[in-house]
Every structure is written in C-alpha cells, then in structure tokens.
Amino acid sequence: xxxxxxxxxxxxxxxxxxxxxxxxxVFNSKGDGFLPCPKESSPPITNDCYTISFKKFVxxxxxxxxxxxxFTNGALFFISPRQVLQWDxxxxxxxxxxxxxxxxxFLKGTELAQRIKKYGFFSxxxxxxxxxxxxxxxxxxxxxxxIEIEYQNNQDEFSKDIIISQLDTxxxxxxxxxxxxxxxxxxxxxxxxxxxxxxLDTYFESGKLQEKGIPSIEQIATELSVSQRYLSDTxxxxxxxxxTEHLHLLLIDxxxxxxxxxxxxxxxxAYELGFEYPAYFSRLxxxxxxxxxxxxxxxxKLN
Length: 303
Fold this sequence. Notes:
- It is built from twelve helices and nine strands.
- The chain is an alpha+beta fold and about 300 residues long.
- The chain folds into two domains: about 1-185, Jelly Rolls, CATH 2.60.120; about 185-300, Homeodomain-like (Arc Repressor Mutant, subunit A, Orthogonal Bundle).
- It has a four-stranded antiparallel beta sheet, with helices on one face. It has a three-stranded mixed beta sheet with strand order 1-3-8. Strands 5-6 form a two-stranded antiparallel sheet.
- A hairpin with a 2-residue loop joins strand 5 and strand 6 (about 65-70).
- Helix 3 runs antiparallel to helix 4 (about 160-185), helix 5 packs across helix 8 (about 230-240) and helix 10 (about 265-270) crosses helix 11.
- The chain is elongated and about 80 Å long.
- The protein starts with a strand and ends with a helix.
- GO terms for molecular function: DNA-binding transcription factor activity; sequence-specific DNA binding.
C-alpha cells in the first residue's frame, strides 16, 4: 500500500496543483468555478494529512469503495492521517465546494493538535458525512474564505496562527452541526440500534459465541456497514451508553438465562458466552448486577 509522507507528494499523486504552503493547501470553487478533479481511481493509499472537504457534484455520481453516493445537495466530510483511502468513479463529473488539506505537523505546538484528535467525525466513513443546511453551508463557506485569504496572501508571522484559529472555528461548528444531524436523524439512530441488537441476538442464537468468542466492536460495525466511531457515537446519543456497554448488557442478559440452568457451572456459563477467562466474566457480571453470578443463581434459582 502506498503511503505519502508529505502533502506535496500526496497532491502530486492525486494529479492536483502543488500547494502554496508546504504543509497546507486550499482549493475553493467559488462563484461559477469548479474544484480541480483528482485522478479518477486509486487502489488503497494512506498519507500523513488531514482533509476537510465540502463537495457538491454537479454531474455524475461518485463510487467510493462498493457504495455509490449522491452528493448533489453537498456534504462535508473529514479524513484523518493514515486513514485508508480508495475510490473509483465510472463517469466524468464536475464538482463545487472546497477542499482543505494540511499535514499533521502543521498543527504541532498548538492546542488544536490535541483537540483535533477528540473529534470523532474524522473517523467516520464517507457515507456518514455531515449534510449542511443552506444556513450552515454559508457559515462554513465564510470561514473557508478567511482561510483562503491568508493562504493566498504573502504569509507573515501571523498567518499560521490566523489559519489555525479559523480551522479551530470550522471544526467547532462542524461538531455543533453533527449534534444537530444526530437529533434530526432519530429514526436512523433508532434503526441502527435495532440493527445492532438484532445482529447480536442472531450471533448469540447461532452458537458463534462458543465458536468464535465475543465479537469485537470493529467486527459488529463492519457487519452493519458503518464505521466503529459512528456506531459508538450514534448509540451514545440515542441511549447514553457506549457500544461496549450495550454489548456487555446483552451478554449479561444472556448470562442470566443460562445461570438459572442448575447443571452448568459459572465457568461453563462464561465459556458458553465467549469469555476466555471466567474470572473476568464474574467481575463484569458483579459490576453490572451488584452481585456475583453465584449469588444471582442462589437468589433467583427456580424452586
């Protein structure tokens, strides 16, 4: 897999114009203009840069991996360093919007260098991008115009601080707008929670717990065709519990039923539920229920 350590080498690979700054590039369509189009397809690649892009496709559709996305109304999406990228498109398209690319070292020594790692949307898939309202779009475009002014001007000792301040503001607005999107997509959130529960119920009933052990959150997210971070954030917004907490609750509910079967030891119950170590199962059970598996069995055993 190709990896690009510098912004210039990455843009060269994409067949895009070279940056004005060695660690920062800004492309903005403005007015009747269009963004420069990158190469039509690419095998998996990685790089050391952050990307913030707002795309409106005027003609054609974009195939990203195995999925086709319609960005006619515009979508804002975020890519973090070393995230695997792969794309293909079957038709020529023209696009409006903007694209900001900056090397992770551009943020070194700033507060944003640490804060940017806390924004979960940099780990979302492209189909989980932020869809802006017209008002939100104007707010973001205003910030990008300020960044572009500094980028195009003769840079001085203040330029970098101003650009980073504007990037910080852009990300804070994006965080706010994602909160709005989660609220506006309650039906989708409920559907994802139902899919999550159904997937685990099916996994439990199929006997895969004993065969393959407890599934990882990454495996579950892949099965549901969402990114791990997006799944976690969606469930957290919907229920207040993380993906791991949901998984543990379902495992404990399953454990309660099996514990009431008197012919099985606690260790056998733990192994049946996919736990490699019975002691860990017992600790988790007591943490969630307030009593040990043995005490639970004694309290609720059938007479």
